[in-house]
Amino acid sequence: MSAEQQVKFYQTGTFTVGNRLLDPSKRTVQASIDRRNALTSGHRACQGCGEALGARYVLDAAMRATGGRLVAVNATGCLEVFSTPYPESAWQVAWLHSLFGNAAAVASGVAAALRVKGSDVRVIAQGGDGGTMDIGFGCLSGMFERNDDVLYVCYDNEAYMNTGVQRSSATPAAARTSTTPALGDEPGNSFGTGKNLPALAMAHGIPYVATASVADLHDLEGKVERAMAIHGARYLHVHVPCPLGWGSDPARTIQIARLAVESGLFPLFEASCGEVVRATPIRRRAKVDEYLRLQTRFAHLFDGTPRSAEALARIQALADRNVSRFGLAPRETEHHSP
Amino acid sequence: MLQVRIHGRGGQGAVTAAELLSVAAFLEGKHAQAFPSFGPERSGAPVVAFCRIDSKPIRLHEPVVEADAVVVQDATLLHCVDVFQGLLPDGFVLLNSGKSLEGLGLAQIVSLLSPGHARVLDASAVARRCLGKPLPNVALLGAVAALTAAVGIDAVVEAIGARFRGTAREGNVAAARAAYDLVAGAASC
Amino acid sequence: MLKQIEGSRAIAEAVALCRPEVICAYPITPQTHIVEDLSEIVKAGDLGRCAFINVESEFAAMSVAIGASATGARAYTATSSQGLLYMTEALYSAAGLGLPIVMTLGTRAIGAPINIWNDHSDAMALRDAGWVQLFAESNQEAADLHVIAFRLAEELSVPVMVCVDGFVLTHAFERVDIPAQADVDAFLPPFEPREVLDPAAPITIGALVGPEAFAEVKVLAHHKLLRSLDCIPALAAAFAARFGRAAGGLVRPYRTEGAETIVVALGSVNGTIQEVVDAMRADGHAIGSLDVCTFRPFPFAAVRRALMRASRVVVLEKNLSVGMGGVLATDVREALGVDAPAVYTVVAGLGGRAITRASVRAAVEKAQAGTLEALHFLDLDRRVVARELAHEVAR
Question: What pTM was estimated for this model as a whole?
Fold first, then answer.
């Protein structure tokens, strides 16, 4: 086994390194020099990969919350492929690659074994939207239904990226993918399809369900910490932009993730036993166009045709519905601390 | 080797009867094999169960083609299943019915067997009396012990005791003994 | 302790004696009684620390076993037919990762057409997955093989499948000697994994292996499976020494000394075949039989040694490789090599059709007379087949 790699800090913005004027207790795990660095450098992810960021954020926070007593089970997908090119591995945590559709079941097995052995080691299962919502849904539902002590984290980049950007049940309406080309009467992915996994998770009545984004590190880390304080089946759905699949600038990954949240298209909330208990209000409401314009997978919506205008309006309506349903409208009078 | 075939309808306990018969034989130090003609069990559908008893280990794994004894738990099967197929000339027949063998139209079959080898008794009535339910399977086992001497009644009773609990045990033991007495005591059918 | 119990119950009790830590299974006929009995044993608190997980599919069952085994827990599952196929991906994964999972396969035909009765097509379908495949001849052997399987699996770090004829054995009440816990404990030490998921010493299990290393990984797995050809006889001897009866091993010949004709088969039909051998020997025929107890890895040398002096070999197999023919027979021919005696393939028992002494004897006599086809279907309704083939031609 190679020795653990220490964290390297480069000059970056205040959110990742941390504000030295901030009370240490309020700083993020990422800001700490002794964070675990569960996913260390040298992996083969694309420049600007949101999933690599999300996985590091989640696992470092989970390692902090559990004192390093954690095992990770990973579904097949981008994260698994770019992190373990034999004979190298970027993981500095006990890690098992399952198969495509069974991360939740394999994790249930790990959790059962740990329980039988009287161990306090915790379990995280992780996978992309394809491995979680489609092929992995049966096993996920089983894990939820049994209330197995696993935190399942879905890194949602809204398509099967590793295999070439094919449509999944997480692909948003009108998005172009290699199997929903921007052609014909309804270019891109159809409206009225897709799954809302957080809602499905809530329907199982499990103790904790939350959504998070790589754009809000504090919020994400807080949710991981709260999740790891609970025993039982838990689900965290993390929105992660994919520059390659979305056709976006790798340098804008976090900005795009933030626009998804601020437009209302990706609401941030937490639920307990099937009921929403907390939602993060939007600081500065953005129009969906601002978000969609930065991704070429939506480029066809900006051709000026009435059909495209209608599609944009429908997407705006989806965002508006989220805002009203979760009560996300910015409260002007509230002083929002970072 | 003695080969017994039990015909019944799903839910009447034909499979349990075969198993208990094998346990009784085991308790007497014999080798026994019991198995059903397998299938998705539906209540009321015809089922068959088999039991082989031998003094040496049983290696065979084929259905009972040539039967030394045939037990028919439900006389209505006579119309739809050839329950006597493969019955050996010196074999035994035991039927659960309130009618007589002639009344069931079996005079011809009876005449081909040795005297006293074909018996009919109302095992359902015995069961209703002893168990409160017309479940004839265990009662018929007592009768099998009396008719064929394949196993003794004490072994049958012990097998019942190991399988059932409480009032079910008492009732089934009583039913088996009652049926045994009926068959062992009666001069002819 | 001697008991008169159902085969499934014997298997469940044997597995329980092996102190499994995680049991996970999905119900499918004819394996159901095994898992039901185990759930009863676990729930009654008779098994110490053991988690019984009701999974949502066979794929999940093998997946849970993988997770448990990789975490250092002794894991067990059971399935049949369609269920085995449904977990195919996970079976290959378990073997590739070298996880010592033990699984009972209640052998059953594969649809379409749907059929719940016994044959060996399911075991055959996964013969290349890298699992050790052992076949039980009786319920006693079925119980004993599970004890041997856990030890074999953990010694070599390879998964083991114990194949038990569905219904014929699983649902039959037979006399079985259930070993004492102390004896099983002496034979089977606690599980010590070669590699384990442990935060104190974190490792990566299941990396992406490219063209530059994949072949070597596979060949090493092949060699490991071949090592079991030495392990299995050693364990059979150790088992016999501890428990006082024979179980397992590579092959088991029956009256093959001086036999001109030898019948080869897997599983419970061997009992029926031995009755035929005895009857024919009594009539003066020089005949014997060979029970192949270990099907994978295929014991080429042991099979060759047992058969090479015969004039003819009749392989009776409960499966049909549609479009090809016999699978066991093909392996037997390979074992015998160029100077082989005549090898006949007799496909019998498909979809649970009974294999009778009379039919086996008739086929053997035809082989002796030289009138048996190279590929023969026992007790086939030739009229039906001919009629349907004629319809096809007329189409």
Answer: 0.91
